[in-house]
Amino acid sequence: MINLWNGMLAEGVSAETYTYVFVTITFMIYLYIGWQSRVRESQGFYVAGQGVPAIANGAATAADWMSAASFISMAGLISFMGSNGSVYLMGWTGGYVLLALLLAPYLRKFGKYTVPDFVGARYYSETARVVAAICAIFVSITYVAGQMNGVGIVFSRFLNLDLTGGVIVGMVIVGFFAVLGGMKGITWTQVVQYFVLIVAFLIPAVAIAGMLTGNGIPQFSMTFSDMPEKLNQIHADLGFSEYTSPFTDKGMLDIFCITFALMVGTAGLPHVIVRFYTVSNVRAARFSAAWALVFIAILYTSAPALAMFARYNLLDSLNGAKILEISEAEIKGEQKKIYKLEKENAEGEKVPLAWATNWQKTGLIQFDDTDKDGVISLVMVKKKGKEEFAEATINRDIIVLSTPEVAGLAPWVIALVATGGLAAALSTAAGLLLVISSSIAHDLYIHFVDPDAPEAKRVAVGRVMIIVGILIAGYFGMNPPGFVGQVVAFAFGLAASSFFPVILLGIFWKRTTRQGAVAGMIAGLLFTGIYIVGNRSVKIFGTEEALFGPWCFGISPEGIGAVGCLLNFVVLVLVSKMTPAPPDDVQELVESVRVPAGSHEPEAHFDESDAVADDV
Amino acid sequence: MSEHQDVGRGQASGGGGGDGGGGSKGRGGKVDVKGYWRANVRLILVLLSIWAVVSFGCGILFIEQLNEFKIGNLPLGFWFANQGSIYTFVVLIFVYAWRMDRLDKKFGVEE
Questions:
Q1: Which of the residue ranges A19-28, A69-78, A144-153 would you say has the lowest mean pLDDT?
Q2: How many Cβ atoms are within 10 Å of A383's Cβ, its own excluded?
Q3: Does the beta-carbon distance from A256 to B56 stay under 8 Å?
Q4: What count of other Cβ atoms lies within 10 Å of the Cβ of residue A363?
Q5: Is A106 or A396 the better-scoring residue by pLDDT?
């Protein structure tokens, strides 16, 4: 198959060779760490022995959080959205403030292993535990399918593996360090994966910033160079809305709700919450959240800069490029035209646009000289209601992937970007698999089927469930439903509208009752789920038209979790007030969770007091 | 083990629910758990207000008004939404962690 490197094999070592080398080296490191971290007891398997230092845990959290989407797609999305791209920047960072202030320290004091542990104990209800476990499994499986698909795509773009082969390699690597080392192996591999991905992201960002503005610090050059004006000018010339102006394609209310849903959803995602169980104590949980955001912010504040510069370069170099020749090639089974382009730069020199020629072969960018004037025009044209280019079709993912070439960087940088993308996808996948495993093995199987199981058996069941999770994830990775993006949006909406309110009020309001929590979760879940599925029924069920449009004040499905969250709060409070107050021992649990003193290692065993029966 | 509240157990420990004020016996005497919690909640409310103002306020609700001004060459509202809010979030969390350290010691509830 035609992959990235056809046409790029220059003298010296090719990027493909570098990719093989870097990927192999990093994979060896991950496997080594997995081996060194192998665990025997469930405390190590589920919560990494609870001795991870705050800074390391912060780096692991950052890698766990930043998936293939953050690494590859986000900057591309922002470059095409302009100011509205801030929904992702604020939405995927702001939630950490909520985590640090409202959830993490108290859950760490609670000290057990999983989110359903807390829900079950706080709401004195085995049903609540089961509902929470099922929600966690659902959210994590949908999310992890996207990651394995991302792994397969990176492999197939950068190496001569097809998608299936790529997914299988990913499955084996994750399987090894997750099954052997459990959360401990996963955490320490994630620390390494953070450094791989951040270096891989920063080098092209710094390079293109330096190349276009003379200042290599992306955050700085984005703000203080003349790039904003140049970009806005070229947007105006081509008929696009101003890049730095807000609410061009989505209105203020929608942007507000999407940002809110993403922030609150972040704080409700099980694989993020569980990252705060692994530190030594409450104080470490707080600082770990702070460090996590520092590490995340490094990428998230560089991404908009990369987006701006790549967008400017795209428009400046391609618009008005002269077509030298048109050849034919087969791309993904279809015959497509490859345009060889050349642009005259400011000094009057003719610059061949080699990167454009190469990238057409991946199918991520296509040209079509519709007016047959021998020149590529990027004038704004509305396609399906969106502002697009007249004579080019561009996939958002090209922004990050092509920047090393655009910036004229050496082939090894391109290899590093591939390795970084894999690090991002694998680290997130591992965290999600741990949640799937712990929900099935710890919350469901051990708790209900075999509460007296010895340590060895607990770990064995956990390991088996990771393998089960990998197989399911791998299957969906190879056969992604067409609606992966919608499903991830659903995961956030679900986390925002079901988990977050219930955990938050469980800590901050003693009067929250079991019935209130269940009612609130169901209300939030159903409202959000039905709204998303109905709006996206074309992709999910293949209906002719969507079942209904965004009838709730025009809020898009990505933002409806905000409304679902409020609905959950309202129902939860009302129903709690109408039902008997929680028993004294639960109220004391809440009191103890609010105070750091006395945080100790969690119990590894269950006794009768944990299996308090309920009548729900 | 009556000095510490047990965690995650479904039963009351010795020094637990008997106190009228809800305070638990800490080491060396009574600990004002209610006062500690009130101070915590107050700190959280202050920090979350800043969080909301910087992100939803400056970055969304008032972004167009703020865009009348510039920081460097970027419209100010745009800068808040893309960069400034994120820096603020980091500072907020560190401030919370440091202040809670002091509160923990002040109320004698540190680990």
A1: A144-153
A2: 10
A3: yes
A4: 16
A5: A106
